[in-house]
Amino acid sequence: SQQGEEDPQALSIQEGENATMNCSYKTSINNLQWYRQNSGRGLVHLILIRSNEREKHSGRLRVTLDTSKKSSSLLITASRAADTASYFCATGKETSGSRLTFGEGTQLTVNP
Amino acid sequence: DTAVSQTPKYLVTQMGNDKSIKCEQNLGHDTMYWYKQDSKKFLKIMFSYNNKELIINETVPNRFSPKSPDKAHLNLHINSLELGDSAVYFCASSRIGGGTTEAFFGQGTRLTVV
Fold this sequence. Notes:
Chain A is mainly beta and 112 residues long. Chain A has strands at residues 5-7, 10-14, 19-24, 31-37, 43-50, 55-58, 61-66, 71-76, 85-92, 100-102, 106-111. The mean pLDDT of chain A is 90. The relative contact order of chain B is 0.33. The mean pLDDT of chain B is 91. The interface between A and B is medium-sized, with 30 and 28 residues.
């Protein structure tokens, strides 16, 4: 299985609702990042949380990190149709030789 | 100005052909990457360069050869294309390596081998 596994694989909600996506990983990390990918586009960085942080906010995004459980969650509050995209978590580790290891992604659909 | 640009955006070619994808970043970053995204959207790193030096070379076929003429450019050349090479290839860059900072991605090159 992969370093960085998202759950659920797909999520469909109504506009205005909150969306929560989870990510689990297997090895120790320096940081965990979340990216968004709109259909047919490249990935866009959303937020980075370091291994010594537990929670981070950016606008309508809230990310938590539990290193003891090797898991993270991304919460999008008051979702909008424009939030429809795939969301990926990625783990970074200095000894991993300059790489980000991505999970399999969660496809979020926000219905107007 | 586009931070990470790659060309072409679409590439349709026949099996056995050789093709190249070009990537340029204007962010002044030291590290550049090539990722492959398969039909299930799984992203896997292929190569990483730091200041023109190869840092990561994952188990990809020898038919794939990256070239970094300077730290702002990282091109990908593919020889003898196969059907299984069909995927979306993303170039990315980051200020420093080790996955310690955010990565900036290009728009992707959708390669279709027929």
